[in-house]
Amino acid sequence: MVTPARLNPPPVFTGNCDGFSALAWLVAVNRYFNLAQIKDDERTPHALSYLASPGPARWFDGCGLADTCNFKTEFTPAFKLEYIPNNFAGACRRQLTNLRMTTDFSTYLTTFKELLGALLGYAATEAAQTIVKEFAQTSFIDNCPLVLQQMIEGHLIQNPNTTLVQIFQYAQEMDRIYSFKPDTGPKTNSSAIASAPIVSSLASSRSSSQATDMEIDHIQIAFNNINRRFNQLEKNMGRNNNYNRNNNYNNNRNNNGHPPPLTREDRVWCFNNNACRRCRQIGHYAKNCPIYGDNNNNHSTNNQGNNNRQGRWVYQVTVGDSPESGKASDDQA
After folding, report:
1. I need a surface site. Which of 23, 36, 181, 329 has the fewest CB within 10 A?
2. How many of the other CB atoms lie within 10 Å of CB of 237?
């Protein structure tokens, strides 16, 4: 447990009716109560000590609530009704939809986070906060510079579970590297009203029969990612096939009746894959090689060559001159 003395107390609310100040004060007070573990029946008296006098303090005296009222169900709704303008959430939503980067990215991000914090503070349930975050993600991407839009979309394709905070961090890192400038062209109608954060940012606000530049870039990024994955798959699975194909090409190219030289790498590969050491193909061994094997034709050719060589030797001895008599005798023949 963190003692209240060690915590920074929430700011004193001075009665500003712009809506943002009231929501920021409620967020700070609730955070302080949760960290200090203030009991529910003691939260309203603590909150009253952070209301400026005479404005907000006088308001509470005239609203008809008791000092022991429930802070969440009684004090907070009455406070929002008094100091938050009507349709404040709608106004913030419209500002997020139409917000655009006009100076630099840091100013744009600061303004966006301020509007987002107001909407999140106005959302009463977790489901409402989830809807606000989805809407904010779409609006943030749509209103970024076009180059940054393409980078974020590519990042979301590779990391579909990226949160809104992580998108902010990624955009800040990209801006630190590239220093984005505002787009000079006219801003197209935003599609941020849709609920789906990623699909809506890709949907065209114009005719559905004509693709926008953003859609074309997104499709190109998707095709590049698919092509890269197929190349990696081919590299992992096609090593043996590529090896056989290249060697078959070399064999057909250099097929002069003799097998190509067997290198050490070829010998190891043939041994590991039970391949032929002559043609480097899988499915048979060297002794049964259909390309360079010792088949019957090769045997007959070799035997015929041996007979010819033997006949030439006999003929030379038979009809050639003898080194002693000049003629070979019949017995020698």
Report:
1. 329
2. 10
Distance of CA 222 to the CA centre of its chain: 10
Q: Which two tokens stand for residue 215?
A: 């859609």
Cα separation, 317 vs 312, in Å, equals 9
- pLDDT, residue 326, reads 46
pLDDT tens digits, one per residue of 183-214: 876 655 444 333 333 333 333 333 444 555 55
Confidence at residue 197, expressed as pLDDT on a 0 to 100 scale: 38
**Distance, CA of 253 to CA of 225 (rounded, Å):** 37
Which of 35, 16, 34 lies closest to 71 in space, CA to CA? 34
Rounded CA-CA distance 36/30 in Å is 10
Buried b (16+ CB within 10 A) or exposed e, 253-273: eeeeeebbeeeeebeebbeee
Q: How many CA atoms within 13 Å lie on the side-chain side of 148? A: 29
Q: 65, exposed or middle or buried, with CB in 10 Å at 0-12, 13-18, 19+? A: middle
Question: Is the confidence at residue 324, as pLDDT, over 50?
Answer: no
Q: Ramachandran region of residue 206, left (φ > 0), alpha (ψ -120 to 50) or beta?
A: beta
pTM for the whole structure: 0.49
Partners of 51 in beta bridges: 13
Side chain identity at 9, as an amino acid letter? P
> Does 79 have pLDDT greater than 50?
yes
313 contact partners, CB below 8 Å, separation of at least 6 = none
Q: Please give the backbone phi and psi of residue 275, each rounded to the nearest 5 degrees, phi first.
A: -105, 165
Cα separation, 153 vs 192, whole angstroms: 15
132 confidence band (pLDDT: 50, 70, 90): confident
For the segment 230-254, what is each residue's pLDDT rounded down to a tens digit? 666 666 555 545 455 455 545 544 5
End-to-end CA distance of the chain: 121
Count Cβ neighbours within 10 Å for each residue of 130-167 and write b for 16 or more, e otherwise: eebbbbbbbbbbbbbbeebbbbbbbbbeeeeebeeeeb
